[in-house]
Amino acid sequence: MNSLLSLSKAEFYVSTRSNASRIVIFLPATLGAIQLILAKIVSIGTSARVALTSQQSLVSNNAYGYFVDSLTTGLTTLVLLSIANAAYGLSQERELGTLRHLLIRSGSRQSIIIAKLLHLHCLTLFSFTVLSFTAYFMSASLWDFGPVIEDGYQLIGESEIWSEIQLGILLAALPIPASICFGLLIGIIAQSPGQALAVSMGLTLTFDIFKSNMGAGANYVFAKFQPSLIDYSYISEVSRMVRGFSDVFIESETIAFNTWIPIPSALLLTALLLFYIRKRPL
Amino acid sequence: MKKTIEIKGLAKHYQKQKIVLRGLDFSLEAGTVHGLVGLNGAGKTTFLNCLLGLQPFDSGDIAILGGNPDQLFSQVGKVVAVFDSPCLHLNLTVHQTLSHARSLCVKPKRTVNELEKLLGLSQYKDYRISQLSLGNRRRTSIAHSLVGEPELVVLDEPFNGLDAAGVDDVIELILNLNRTENTAFLLASHQLSYLEQACSHLSILHEGRIIASDEIKKLLQNKRSKVTIRTQNRSEALIFLKDRSEIRITETQNEYEDSITVELRDWRASDLNCFLVENGIAVDELLLNHPTVSSFFRDATQPHPSNMETFK
Predict the structure, then answer these.
(1) Which among A247, A265, A95 has a CA at the least distance from the CA of A175?
(2) How far is CA A54 from the centre of its chain?
(3) Is A104 within 8 Å of B49 when comparing Cβ atoms?
(4) Which range marks the domain in which residue B276 is found?
(5) Is residue B106 a part of any domain in this protein?
(6) Residues of chain A with C-beta less than 8 angstroms from the C-beta of B90
(7) Rounded CA separation B145/B155 (Å)
(8) Number of structural domains chain A divides into
(9) How many domains does the structure of chain B reveal?
(10) How close does chain B come to A20, measured CA to CA in Å?
(11) Do B25 and B130 reside in the same domain of the chain?
(12) Per-residue pLDDT tens for A49-79?
C-alpha cells in the first residue's frame, strides 16, 4: 500500500509538470468552448435571417442543445486524448527507462501499472470536470437554459432534460476506463512511443469506421459506446432530444449493452495488462 | 565475507537461439568496488538487466542483498542503478528531477541542494534534462541514485559523456562513498583505465561466462611485464633471444618493423639490454609495459595468434 502511495505521488509529481497532462486537461474544454462560440455566431446569423423572412425557427434555440453538443465534442476529444496519452506515455517511459527506477526502488510491476491507472483516471476525471464547467458556463452566458417549448406547449421539462443529460454522460463515461486500459496495453506491447501512438489511434479510428458494418457484433466492443467521430453514443441522441426532436429512439437493448459491456471490458483489459507486464523487459 | 550479490548458473537466451549468458557465476562482496568488463555484445547489459529484475532469465539463481531481483523494491532503496542512458524525465528540471527522486525514497539521506553540490549541478538546477549535455545528464543520473543510503550502486557505463574532470569527480565520489559509507559498487564499463583507478575487484564477462574474477592486484600479480625492443638488427636479435629461458618472445610483427616484444620472466629490462649489447646488437629503444587491466583484458579475451610459430 505504501509503495502504491509513493508511486502515485511520483506519477502526479511528473504529471503536474508535463505538457501532455495540460493538453489532456484543457484541450477538450477549449474545443468545446470554440464550438459554442462558432455555434453562437451561426445562430446570430440564423436569427437575423429568420427575422428578415419571418420564418419560424425549426430547432429550439435552448442552451441545453449547445451544452450537450459541447460536451460531446469535448468527450470525443477526451477519449482520443486519454487513449493516446496512456499508450504514448507508458511507451515513452519504457523507452526513456524511467520505469526502471520505479521498479528497482518503489514498487512491483503490477503496482506501477495500478498507480498509472489511478493517475490516468484522475486526469480524465479532472479534464471532464473542467470540460463540464466550461461547457455549462459558456452555454449559460451565450443562451438561456430552459424547458423545450414549441407552439406554446412544453415538450420537455428541465428536470427531464437534466436526467437525460446525466444518463447520456454516464453512458458516455462508462467506456472511458476500458479506453485507458486499452491505451496502456498498447503502450506496454509497442516497441516505441511512435508505434504505440500509431497503433492505438489506428485501431480506435478503424473500429470507429467499421463499427456500423459489424452489426450486432459491435455491441460487444466497449468502444462502440464512447463518443467518437462517427458517433453512436447515447449522448449524441440526447443532443437531439433536448432540441425537441420527437424521432429520438434508442433501443433498450443498446442501453443494456452500453451499461454492461464497458466495465467487464475494462477489468479484462486490466487483467491482460497485469499479466503482460509480468514478463515484459523494462 | 558477506556477499552483496551472489549468482549461480545464470542463463539467458533471446529469440532464434541467441544464447547470451551461459551458466554465469558471479559474486560481489559487501563494501567493494567491482568492475565488470566485456567485449561489445558480451552480455553485460543483459547481465545487469537480469540482476536488477528488469528482464526475466531462463535459469539460475540470483541473490541481491539476500533477496530476489523481482523484489528489489522491497529493499526500499538499498539497491539503486545508473543506466547507460540517463533514464530521466526530459521535461523536468534538474532540481525537480532530484525532488522526484526524493519522493521515491523512503528514507532520503541527502537534500536536493546537497546532491546538486555533490555532483556540481548547482548552476544547472533550473535547466530541463532535455537541455543538458550528456555529461551533465550522467551527473544528474548519479545524483538521482544517491538520494538515499544505498548499500549497492550498479552503474552501467558511468563515464560515458563525462569530461576528464567529470571522470575524476565521479571516481572520487565512488571511492569516497565506498570508504565512508561502505557502499558497494558494480561498474560495467569499457573504460578500462578508469576502472583500474576506481575498482578493487574486476570480473571479465566473455562469451556468456565470467572468465576471470578477483581482486585486481591478484589478477595482475601473475602477469609479467613486457618489453618492446626497437633495433636495426632485428633478425640477429631474434636469433639471440629465441632460446633464452629468461624471456618469452610474444610478438615479432607489430606496427614498427624494427621491433620485437618479449615477456620478462627472470630478467629485468636492464638485464635484457645488457644481453643484447654484449652480443653486439645496438638497441634504439626499450619500452617497458607493466601489466594493466587493459592488457590483462586483451590477453583474456583476444588470444594472440601464435607468433612463435611464425618465427620458427
Answers:
(1) A265
(2) 40
(3) no
(4) 224-290
(5) yes
(6) 96
(7) 10
(8) 1
(9) 2
(10) 10
(11) yes
(12) 877 876 655 555 788 989 999 999 999 999 9
